[in-house]
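[Automated response] Your request has been received and processed.

Submitted sequence:
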Amino acid sequence: MTSTLRRAGGFAVVGTLALAAPSLGSAAFAPFAAVALLAAFVIDDGPLFELFARPGDREDGRLNGLAGFALAATGLALLATVPRVKMPLTAFVAAVLVLAYGNLGGRLADARLDDEFLQTAGFVGTGLAAATVGQVAVANVTGAPAPLARFTFVAALGALVAALLRTAFYERDDPLVMITVGFVLWGVEVLAGPVSPTQTGISIALTVALGYAAYALGTASLAGMLTGVLLLFVAIGLGGFGWAIVLVSFFSIGGLATKFRYDHKAERGVAEKNEGARGTGNVLGNSAVSLVAVVGYAATQTIGHSLGSDLFILAFGGSVAAAMSDTLSSEIGGLFDNPRLITTFKPVPPGTDGGVTWQGEVAGIVGSALVAALAYVLLPLSTEAAALAVLVGGVAGMTVDSLLGATVEGSGLGNQAVNFLATLAGALAAVVAWLPL
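Generated structure:
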């Protein structure tokens, strides 16, 4: 057994202390605080030190990694027991176990497999299982209801968040990962409604299938794939399957459009980098606004604000339509000659920021219309006029992207920031177009 695997097992044992929280009550932080003190000031040699030491710890002669892990768990334990508005105990336990056992599962997979996708799957699967069991155990001890479907959904969401953060951070940043997962799960507990077994099962199956397809086809990097499936999971949990399908339409069609005649686009200098595999920044640039809209919709549902719900639905549809419209206009339009700068209509070389072709504009309008149609069928839009507003939002977002490309992209803004502003413009345009109707 390798030292990294033994260390991951030791951290998993420490994380299991979270299960004592229901019995300890307001003292739930005590076991982790004790571990943090021992790691920082007492254990500086011997078998325990060798078990938990990371490379940097040996240089410092102190178990900084274990101390940070335990302090993060201490902080979450205090949030779950001390404030007037407390983090649910189940969210605290899930956050700790997702990371502790997820790391163990990832290390086990790493020891046997040489594939980053399968290693990440080991992290997510083990973290999901441990967090689900932990939540059930806490509910049984406290006598609270134990909805297995909801616990599994929450555990899967936490595992995806942790896995995504682990692609961006180092192992020493695990405390930040744990705290972030804890707050995400706390928010989900507040905003998400009841979760059925069917909803949980389909959610997991859908995200696994689409995530693997995106990674296998090369339409997304590992981090980009995790970002996409996480957004789908949030959309299902806070909105419903209709919201997720609208997002899937963009991810799938946009990804395939990027791969369409990729070699030819590469020769013309208009192809996406990294063989068309979109990363986290690209996915978030196109989908951050839609994520905010889903969360806003869930919040308005919680407080029963119908007008606010309608506005967030329109913002969601408009932002996705803008992302689809912009992607198709760029990927299809880049295959044709004679682009013109949108601000002056003068001919420019292919690939010039802000350059458009009539074929690309038509493709963008068709993409926006497709999202509008899906939104009308799948989202709780009240009228055909609302669907038309989504279409308008998509075309407006595409146009804003081109205008920004012709004026400030490169000198003042990067592509991801431009994508974000374009989708924001699409969301706002959809809302504004609907208000007078």
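Summary generated for your ticket: The chain has a mean pLDDT of 88. The CA atoms of residues 55 and 173 lie 14 Å apart.
If you did not submit this request, please reply to this message.
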